[in-house]
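If your schedule permits, I should be very grateful for your opinion on a structural question. I have a record of one protein: its chain in single-letter code and its fold written as discrete structure tokens. Kindly check, if you would, that the fold set down in the tokens agrees with what the sequence suggests. I remain grateful for any guidance, and I place the record below:

***
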Amino acid sequence: MTIQLRRYQLRPGTLPTWVEYWRRDVAPLRREFGFGIRFASADHANDQFVWALEFDGTPEELAEQDRLYHASPQWAERNDDQNIPLIDTTIAVIEDVTVAAPGLLNAEANL
């Protein structure tokens, strides 16, 4: 399992529209392409969107699936310049070091 932490810096005032787009178009399409979503958070005070993408494979396999995702006609159809509000993007492969605890919620079920 490979996890990517993705941080997007958005232009001021565009975060609410971006979140709506992400929920409607990005998250469902990512799942269609075999990705999982660990969590997604909106930091309104700093105009940032932070989320964790996971893929059942190596970092190289995730990168290849990500390339296929971005090259797909479905992405082209749904994107329609929706990435314009993004000023900066940071993507890093991370390790989940969470210790499972009783009652720990499954964040993906809430998306």
Summary: The beta strands are 2-10, 36-43, 48-55, 86-94.
